Amino acid sequence: MAELLLLADILWVWSKPIGVGIYDFDFRSFFPCRQPWQRSPEVTAVGRCGAFEEYRVEYEALLSEGIRLIHTPEQHDKASEFGQWYPLLEGSTPQSKVYAETPTGEAVAESFQFPVFVKGSRQTSRHQKSLSIANSPSEFDYIMVRYASDPILSWQSVVVRDFVRLRPVEGNSQGKVDSSFEFRTFWWRNQFVGGGRYWWEGRTYQWSANERSEALRLAESTAKLIDVPFLVIDLAMTVDGNWIVIECNDGQESGYAGVSPIALWQNILEIERS
Ligand SMILES: Nc1ncnc2c1ncn2[C@@H]1O[C@H](COP(=O)(O)OP(=O)(O)O)[C@@H](O)[C@H]1O
Ligand SMILES: [Mg+2]
Questions:
Q1: Which of 2, 175, 265, 274 yields a CA-CA distance of 20 to 30 A from 192?
Q2: In the chain, which segments carry CATH 3.30.1490?
Q3: Which CATH class is domain 95-162?
Q4: C-alpha torsion 258→262→265→271, nearest 10
Q5: Which residue numbers delimit the ATP-grasp domain (predicted)?
Q6: Ligand minimally distant from the alpha carbon of residue 116
C-alpha cells in the first residue's frame, strides 16, 4: 500500500515498498515523518513507489486525489525515454540510434561497426549479456528473435549503440554484462545530492577525488541539459580514462545502487529547506 508521508515537515513522498532491497527505503526509520490529517488541497510529492507502467495514467490518477508527482509526464519522459534524452547528450554518450521498427543486422551494419550494444528504449533485460552485445549482423538478427519473445524487451523500441570499451572492475558474472567502473549519481533541481557505485553487488571500487570531480563535472552539465527536478545519471569510465554518460532515468524510479539513501534524502531536504 502506498502512503503519503511528509518528511521533516518539508518534503512530501508518495511511498510504497516494492520488495526490492536496493529500491525500498524505510523513511520512517530515518526521518521524522508525519501524515497530516489536514493538508492543502494539492501537494507536490516525490514518487517512490516503483517503476511506473504508464506514468501519465498514474500521474492523472494521483492528481485527482490531490497528489501532484514531482515530474510532469513530459519531464518523466525527458528523463527516462532514450529517444528524448539522447539527442540532448550527443557527444557525451555512445553514438546511438533508436529504431521504431526492428532493424535487420544488415541495416544496423550500414550505420554501425560491430560489435554493437543493443537494448530497449527504456532498459535491457536484466543486464543479460547475450541480449545486449551483438558481434555480427547475424548475431544481431538472432538477438532480435529473442527480443520478440522477451517480456521486458518486446514492447520497447530497439536502441543500438556504439559498443564502448569500459574500464573493467571485475570479470563477468552469470551471463550479465561485465561490470565496469560505473557510478550512479542523483540530481535534485540540478544539484548533486548523491553518488555511488553502480555495480553495488560485486567487488567494491571507488573513484579518486580527481576522478569523482571530473565525473561530476560531466554529470552536472548533463543534468542542466535535461533539467528536470529529480534526475539520475549513470556514468562510466572508458578504458582510455574518459567519462561518458551511460544513461539517464527518473530519480523516482531508480534504485539507490551504491548511493546512501540516508545521505541522499538529507541532501534533498537541505536544498528544500533553503
Ligand atoms: N554502449 C555501450 N558500450 C558498452 N557497454 C555498455 C554500453 N551501454 C551500456 N553498457 C553496459 O551495459 C550496462 C547496462 O546498460 P544500461 O544502458 O545501463 O541498461 P539498463 O537500462 O538495463 O540498466 C551498463 O551499465 C554498462 O556497463
Ligand atoms: Mg543501467
A1: 2
A2: 95-162
A3: alpha beta
A4: -100
A5: 143-268
A6: 1
Query: Would the CB of 246 count as within 6 Å of ligand 1?
Result: yes
Rounded to an integer, the average pLDDT of 181-210 is 95
| Residue 78 pLDDT exceeds 80 | yes
Name the fold adopted by 166-273.
D-amino Acid Aminotransferase; Chain A, domain 1 (3.30.470)
What is the 71 CA–ligand 1 centroid distance (Å)? Answer: 25
CA of 192 to the centre of ligand 1 (A): 22
CA of 87 relative to ligand 2 center, distance in Å: 18
Location of each CATH 3.30.470.20 domain in the chain = 166-273
Point out the ligand nearest to the CA of residue 127: 1
Average pLDDT, whole number, for the chain? 94
State the pLDDT at residue 125: 83
Cell numbers placing 131:
541480449
Residues 198, 158: contact at Cβ < 8 Å?
no
Rounded CA-CA distance 136/105 in Å is 7
Q: Which residues pair with 180 in a beta bridge?
A: 168
Q: pLDDT above 70 covers what percent of the chain?
A: 99
Tell me which ligand sits closest to the C-alpha of residue 115.
1
Q: Distances from the Cα of 9 to the Cαs of 82, 163, 270, 273, in angstroms?
A: 35, 46, 12, 10
Q: Which of 93, 127, 130 to mutate to test the pocket of ligand 1 (most atoms within 8 A of CB)?
A: 127
Q: Which residue has the cell 540530481?
A: 187
